[in-house]
Amino acid sequence: MSDISLFVADAHCRGHLAGRDHPERPERFDAVKHGMERAGLVARMRRAGPRIATEDEVLLCHTPHYLKTAQHDIDSGVPFLSTGDTEITTSSWDVALRAVGGALSAVDAVATGAARNAFCLLRPPGHHANASHGMGFCIFNNIAIAARYAQRAHGMARIMIVDWDVHHGNGTQDIFYQDPSVFFFSTHQWPLYPGTGRADETGEGAGEGATMNFPFPAGAGRKEILGAVQDRLLPAAANFRPDLVLISAGFDSRIGDPLGRFTLEDEDFADLTHAVMGITDGRVVSMLEGGYNLAGLGSASAAHVEALIDG
Ligand SMILES: [Zn+2]
Asked: What is the dihedral of CA 272, 305, 139, 176, to 10 degrees?
């Protein structure tokens, strides 16, 4: 099995929301890429070519009606998805399919052993999108589709999703809420958008116990979040024994973010990464979610990726 880390990035994603005054802006792509380049990380990784997801792949987690609605909204030039608060521009359909496709390329590489782990520099983020609604800067739920794809295309039975974005990954939780085969763990600020993710949201039916939420007040940081990972996630993972771990890597939980009030520092993201890598011997696919302070986004993502490479 390869010990190389894969870097999935597609500059086409800069087209989404270009020219808008929006926190989820094209410059986020540049901030992460430059942060990784400054740290000498890109040269140490294998690059993956762009890939456009098929509609069937998107349908692994979304309804046919939502797929049609999103495509129609984007093609018609309206500024928002009709399902919620997600801003769109005319290139958003192509970009959203590329974001999903990139995530699936990363799963292919790690599942086949071509890479040990992968970091996907993707826009738009995905963790707020559920089966039938885009919302919160998200069109398709990239990480949820990646989880289902790992199961269907690679026969991986159990997938664990770790979400350290400052916002609750309500869409991911919703998609797998009754599913015992995909474990969802989230730390997030509460109260904060989107308002879900209470500690007593633990799954439903067959999925009861396969969702874990750790809401923390503004000001929380290393002690709370790394503590939840070490004290709660790792024992749960030892019991669940996932075949693959996916990370919803949001860096809006870093200190100084304009949309969140957590206090994680760059080295905390490295420590979180190392802890999560221990679950599956380093076999991890990480994908960018939030992070809106460009300088902080660049340095925090570099610390995270360096841990993936060195881990
Ligand atoms: Zn976020």
From this structure: -40
CA of 113 to the centre of ligand 1 (A): 30
- The pTM (predicted TM-score) of the whole model is 0.98
- What is the greatest pairwise CA distance in the chain? 49
Measured in Å, residue 166 CA sits from the centre of ligand 1 at: 5
Whole-number Å distance, alpha carbon 247 to ligand 1 midpoint, is 13
Per the annotation, the verdict on 133 as an active-site residue is: no
> What's the gap between Cα 245 and its chain centre?
11
pLDDT at 190: 98
**How many C-beta atoms lie closer than 10 Å to residue 264's C-beta?**
27
CA of 269 to the centre of ligand 1 (A): 15
Sign of the dihedral through C-alpha 309, 274, 179, 251: negative
Q: What is the CATH number of domain 5-310?
A: 3.40.800.20
Interval between CA 190 and ligand 1 midpoint (Å):
12
What distance in Å separates the CA atoms of residue 14 and residue 267, rounded to the nearest whole number?
Answer: 28
Task: Choose the catalytic residue: 128, 167, 168, 188.
Answer: 128
Residue 180 — very low, low, confident or very high, per pLDDT cuts 50/70/90? Answer: very high
Region of residue 19 (left: phi > 0; alpha: psi -120 to 50; beta: else): left
205-220 pLDDT, tens digit each? 999 999 999 999 999 9
Using 50, 70 and 90 to split pLDDT, how confident is the model at 187?
very high
Helix or strand (DSSP H, E) at 214:
strand 211-216
Question: Within 10 Å of residue 65's Cβ, how many Cβ atoms?
Answer: 11
Peptide bond before residue 191 is cis, with ω within 30 degrees of 0? yes
What type of residue is 107? Answer: V
Q: Rounded mean pLDDT of 245-271?
A: 98
CA of 173 relative to ligand 1 center, distance in Å: 14
Q: What percentage of residues in the chain have a pLDDT greater than 70?
A: 100
Q: How confident is the model at residue 84 (pLDDT cuts 50, 70, 90)?
A: confident
